[in-house]
UniProtKB/TrEMBL annotation:
Catalyzes the transfer of a dimethylallyl group onto the adenine at position 37 in tRNAs that read codons beginning with uridine, leading to the formation of N6-(dimethylallyl)adenosine (i(6)A). Belongs to the IPP transferase family. Its EC number is 2.5.1.75. The keyword tRNA processing applies. Monomer. This is tRNA dimethylallyltransferase. Residues 39-42, 163-167 are annotated as: Interaction with substrate tRNA. It catalyses: adenosine(37) in tRNA + dimethylallyl diphosphate = N(6)-dimethylallyladenosine(37) in tRNA + diphosphate. Keywords: ATP-binding, Magnesium, Nucleotide-binding, Transferase, tRNA processing. Substrate binds at residues 16-21. ATP binds at residues 14-21. Its cofactor is Mg(2+).
Length: 306
């Protein structure tokens, strides 16, 4: 086998339900490496079923980090993750030159591989006014405003997340420039090389896999998990597909069938945004989701030798 660069992070990305976890475990076993999760919702110990946390069998198949290591009551953002993940990667590289990173949270992946972008300070009153607008007029109004000021941001960020929408809007309003215009800052120097592997499939296949996964989540107890979290629904961590729709059901605003259909619809939209985000990165080598792991291992070995 050709020699691999001294320090490598193999980043496995792609839309939700495509099979990233299964591939990352095969890669970890082959390279005798450990896995870092860059899925921002799998960080929370109270959320298991609705975030598709790896099963105990999967967790035992390869060592994982950043899985359910935080509580939903803690404030933990992408900047915190960048700091913690880089520190953990340095630690893991002392024992093995290869670390596997897996996750569909594009901003969190980028934070590790390229560093976070710099945004100028803006008047704090802008955020306060946007929060008031959210309270009075709802999220749809803010989404429409973002689509007008920065259509590219509207297509790529998690527009179902009020905090993300407000963050993008405050930059647009405060600077007079699109939020996305600040996403082109020079990359941070990392002491490792990133090999990015993307898994994909026909859209109909992705959607079928998402629908099946949601049905399985319901079977496995998502309703009970979400109901236990209802008293804390105001927390940002719970503004997540799979939970917020069920909260509406518990409060009598929707039927269960409608809530489940909304989970499927919103997850499909999320997958579409994930692909829009990752397709902007020319460094990602895409494989069909059915590709044998050995072919991907061969690509890693033959294309990134010293």
């Amino acid at each position: 086998m050709p020699k691999i660069y001294p320090k490598i992070v193999i980043s496995v990305v792609g839309p939700t339900a495509i099979g990233k976890t299964a591939l990352s475990i095969k890669l970890a076993q082959h390279f005798k490496a450990k896995i870092i999760s860059a899925d921002s919702r799998q960080f929370y110990k109270e959320m298991s079923i609705g975030t598709a946390v790896p099963s105990l069998e999967e967790l035992n198949a390869a060592p994982h980090h950043f899985i359910q290591h935080k509580s939903i009551d803690e404030n933990y953002n992408v900047g915190d993750f960048e700091r913690d993940a880089i520190s953990k990667i340095k630690e893991l590289h002392k024992d093995n030159p290869i670390v596997i990173m897996v996750g569909g949270s594009g901003l969190y992946v980028k934070a590790v591989t390229k560093g976070l972008d710099y945004f100028p300070e803006v008047d704090s009153n802008i955020r306060e006014n946007l929060n008031l607008q959210l309270e009075k007029e709802g999220l749809n109004t803010l989404q429409e405003q973002l689509n007008l000021l920065d259509p590219e941001a509207f297509k790529t960020i998690a527009v179902d997340n009020p905090q993300r929408v407000i963050r993008a809007l405050e930059i647009c309003i405060g600077t007079g420039k699109p939020y996305t215009s600040f996403l082109t800052n020079p990359e941070k120097n990392r002491d490792f090389k990133t090999i990015s592997i993307g898994l994909n499939a026909e859209r109909s296949v992705i959607y079928d896999r998402i629908n099946q996964r949601v049905d399985l989540m319901i079977e496995n107890g998502l309703l009970e998990e979400a109901k236990a979290l209802l008293p804390k629904k105001h927390l940002n961590a719970l503004n997540t597909v799979g939970y917020k729709e069920l909260f509406e059901y518990f409060e009598g605003n929707d039927s269960l069938d409608f809530a489940v259909s909304e989970i499927k619809k919103n997850t499909r939209r999320f997958a579409k945004r994930q692909l829009t985000w990752f397709r902007k990165d020319d460094a990602i080598k895409w494989f069909d989701y059915k590709t044998d792991a050995n072919a991907i291992i061969q690509y890693i070995a033959s294309n990134h030798q010293k």
